[in-house]
Structure of phenylalanine--tRNA ligase:
Amino acid sequence: PLSRYPPLINDISFWLPSETYSQNDFYDLVRTIGGDLIEKVVLLDEFAHPKTKKVSHCYRIIYRHPERTLTQDEVHRIHQAIEESAVRELGVEGRF
């Protein structure tokens, strides 16, 4: 069911590790940490640095609770946990 409460939108961007990286691993990590509060995760941008050849991804994460309005403080704590886990578990270099 769709929620009638407003979404909160936060973006996250990071440099990909030189070894293999899977977008699905990031999507799984976000859903594991955010659970039912994650409505949608979308890859917004992919950028390759012309000199270093490093690749960066920017994702938009849409948070929405089915039964109440979320506060930015609540979402910030979840978003920060996602950032920290992405660095630790996926080996990305944060741009946050």
